[in-house]
Amino acid sequence: MKLRISEEAQVDIERIDAWWAEHRHKNPWLFQDELAEALKLIECSPGLGRSYDGARKYRWVLLRKSHYLVFYEHLLEDNAVAIVAVWDPRRGEAPPLK
After folding, report:
1. What is the distance between the alpha carbons of residues 15 and 17, in angstroms, rounded to a whole number?
2. Which pLDDT value is given to residue 91?
3. E strand intervals along the chain
4. Do the domain assignments include residue 42?
5. Residues in a beta bridge with 60
6. In Å, how far are 62, 74, 95 from 68, measured between CA atoms?
7. For residue 63, what is the DSSP state?
8. What is the C-alpha separation between 83 and 78, in angstroms, rounded?
9. Chunked in runs of 10, what are the mean pLDDT values of the chain (98 residues)?
10. Is the pTM of this model over 0.70?
11. How far is 82 from 53, CA to CA, in rounded Å?
12. Would 98 be classed as within a structural domain?
């Protein structure tokens, strides 16, 4: 299984990582560590996440300690998983998924 990260998701990851490193001095690596573990799980078991109600082709998993959601699409024909967004649900809105 191949793992792909969209440009939009990469921007999300970099923004969140920069904020986390600057504001979470007790554990500045928590987000990165949790994300890395989630990406491994998604890559090995793409059916693991919950179906996203707003767009059925997407699924999501929760990073339990940092509270972010990782949205992805399982691309069966390409034998790949595409990470499409990393989102803070406390924003009160859905991520802009296409």
Report:
1. 6
2. 77
3. 2-5, 50-51, 58-62, 69-75, 80-87
4. yes
5. 50, 71
6. 6, 19, 12
7. -
8. 14
9. 94 94 90 96 92 81 95 92 93 77
10. yes
11. 18
12. no
